[in-house]
Target: IMP dehydrogenase
Amino acid sequence: MRGVIMHAPRDVRVEDRPDPVIEEPTDAIIRTVATCICGSDLWPYRGEDRVHDQPMGHEYVGVVEQVGEDVTHIKVGDFVVGSFFASDNTCPICVAGYQSRCVHAVPMGPLGTQAERVRIPLADGTLVATPGYPDEEIIPSLLAASDVLGTGWFAAVAAEAGPGKTVVVVGDGAVGLLGILAAKHLGAARIIAMSRHADRQALARRFGATDIVEERGEEGVAKIKELTDGLGAHSTIEAVGTQESMLQAIASTRPGGHVGFVGVSHGVSIPGRVLFPAEVHLMGGPAPVRQFLPELISLIWDREIDPGVVFDLTLPLERAAEGYQAMDERRATKVLLRP
Ligand SMILES: [Zn+2]
Model:
């Protein structure tokens, strides 16, 4: 089969890879219908994470081609969505709703979903089947549920976005934008997007942002305070993962408020002298997307949300390298790949 390999920073190629096979009786093999490039794939692409001959991709929707003998719920022919961590969905951590930290969690990245076929461990726990084969028009939205939508949703829930709340969103990548969609769906009264890119501001407004703040750092925080009677937001979504964005998120939140942080941390360290007086709740980490998948699939199936519009470039899998380049140069927000 064909699949993406990142040999080194900025060296992405589509090559022949061995077809996956059932290794454990709880595995399934899917034929990938759509996959995509994640903002987090840019960390190794830019040389900020180590990378050497690595299969890439952790987002996927597809059709089940084969199941192991212990798989009972998922059937051959099902159209399925799964998250970037395989999980059993039965251990105490999963039952509590934190499937990305399942005691048997398997990260999907090393298996590489930017490929024609993928082995899905713990298939019964990991995969959620859609009610049928989806219309072409909602496939991008179902794919978004696999990571960016699920992650933005978790961030909004972790930030306790809800009716009457003012929500600030730090980060205008796909996750931040879908955090806006989630906050809107959860009933937030006011949603302030921090963005300085015109195309992303437009999408932010489409998803429900009521205000845009272009300033960053201390100036950005001052602007948030100005818009919130000097108090700060009730709920802040942090969707970048840098020191600046994390401190900006904490400082934008009022005492007693909540920060939902989902940007993969790179060099973040929170000084006690900042954290202690802030008096905010911090909740975040790798989003337990699996917890939200049934609800998200149902909202997409019923055309109540359209997260798939974050994909602004679609390419055949064979042209994945162009997709990485477009995202790196910010010519694309999110790139969908079709095998
Ligand atoms: Zn588990």
